Amino acid sequence: MVTLSLNEQMIVALVCVAVFFIVGRRKSRRTQVFLEVLSALVSLRYLTWRLTETLDFDTWTQGVLGVTLLLAELYALYMLFLSYFQTISPLHRAPLPLPANPDDWPTVDIFIPTYDEALSIVRLTVLGALGIDWPPDKVNVYILDDGRREEFARFAEACGARYIARPDNAHAKAGNLNYAIKHTTGDHILILDCDHIPTRAFLQIAMGWMVSDSKIALLQTPHHFYSPDPFQRNLAVGYRTPPEGNLFYGVIQDGNDFWDATFFCGSCAILRRKAIEEIGGFATETVTEDAHTALRMQRKGWSTAYLRIPLASGLATERLITHIGQRMRWARGMIQIFRVDNPMLGPGLKLGQRLCYLSAMTSFFFAIPRVIFLASPLAFLFFSQNIIAASPLAVGVYAIPHMFHSIATAAKVNKGWRYSFWSEVYETVMALFLVRVTIVTMLFPSKGKFNVTEKGGVLEREEFDLTATYPNIIFAGIMALGLLRGVYALIFQHLDIISERAYALNCIWSVISLIILMAAISVGRETKQLRQNHRIEAQIPVTVYDYDGNSSHGITEDVSMGGVAIHLPWREVTPDQPVQVVIHAVLDGEEMNLPAIMIRSARGKAVFTWSISNIQVEAAVVRFVFGRADAWLQWNNYEDDRPLRSLWSLILSIKALFRRKGQMIAHSRPKKKPIALPVERREPTTSQGGQKQEGKISRAAS
Length: 702
Fold this sequence. Notes:
Pfam families: Cellulose_synt, Glycos_transf_2, PilZ. The protein is an alpha+beta fold.
């Protein structure tokens, strides 16, 4: 065995860093695998050092605190290695064509479960589902109303959907789905959360795999959200940062697919009825019936698949406290599965499937290690307990390379799906709330009940959500006191060189912890959100006709259920002027005519509000706004991660705490210049009866 000095170990570390930069310049799957292996080896080097040279403690207190930190690090390394395993070869599955004859396509039941959500939210999903392109005699749309509300039954009858209400609410969403299965007959089931509005091409794009491979029980697609989540809305750099869920749906699920371990995520998924019936219905033992159901199907030998194309879009959580509550339910459910149906035990799974499920479940144990990492410098700053028995030079030689490679390699793997250091912020926001959930669920897995995530609300005024941030405010206050204690010792106390370095190291650590805590607190500065209808950026060619026969060609800037903004040549207009917006389709020469009223026009842009007078017009607007097949293809339109830039953006996000009340966060998306377009005049389109067409329903622009 060859033992290297610290200086020699430093050379090894520098060589590994140099290899990373040399190899990392090439972009290929082999390069990614090489960098992951290199990172794992550097991390194993760090782990060996930690286990063999840093556990020399003088007191029991020091020993307990030191071992606690070591266990947190072991968890982090365990999750790092599992993540490399999951993402070693993402499958990047592409759609498969359906049989040429639609008579050979399977029958589909579309389930839209709801409990206490507002009809204004549910109706958009129902109308979107009714507009899905599939043979009418082979598809049925069902509203599964656990609230047993009369207005929902009337709406179902008016729009042509079917309505199912069961006599009780046993087992929440899972029970609702199981009841519906017994009262329907479709070969396949498309499940949509009641706010997830599908595109018209959902089934035509996704169903090919289910038809071609009879062993696939589930095809999952991404959860995409057209409204901003609290991180995007409340932080100064939020719109320039990928949403929290993009990492899972852009990287992890695609990696799971390689191992035949795609998880069911509760919505935007097609399931095979035969597979669900074979396992006795959706799992009811936990509050995350989705992942548990997929696990049970795979134990029976069924396969699952993932298609990384967003084919529906929904509402993100509006408030931070709602977001935390949703994650608490997820954590409780995944830990429940870990306790009652551990993937490492029992029959039916391959090793790759077991490890992918294990990673998903144990990832929700992050809260306790996250708190330990943040609080560790306080052990020395307050109590002079040195919980890592190592010199600053040794820390630099072993710990810094480990952190560099794990961060830099993740940036290469995650690209534009998740930015460096933002995982720490996402976890810190929830950590102190999840510590109790983690402990209680591990000890008492049957505790806890399903809760519905509230969506679709508005925030009438800017406010600071103390309920969602008070644990981190207290934590940050304690951390600031520890930092002041360390700075005081460095300035005013006569320290030997070893103590001085220890104080400096722990002060730097506490500054990093404080930055993360401040960023997490900043998310609680809720900005106003008064829009019931969120704007969606879209560039679609249209022609606007007024009742005098004038026509103007334009390109939309954004669309919503409330109206549309269109780049049009400027001209004098009469306020509240009724017009027809004609959307030019790409397929088969089809077009859609929507009635609207002009609100204003200036500087080459006109703004209209829709004239929705009946369900048919509303359905047409839904198909235009949400139903376009390419509506969400730009869901990952973010630059690739650069760790230093990401760190700087995280620091900038703290500005939200010091924003004056009522001051808006600057929207970071680039503003497009108005488009100069020609004007032409032609006679307005008329129907056979000579009347101008309004609200005509046809295929939406693809």
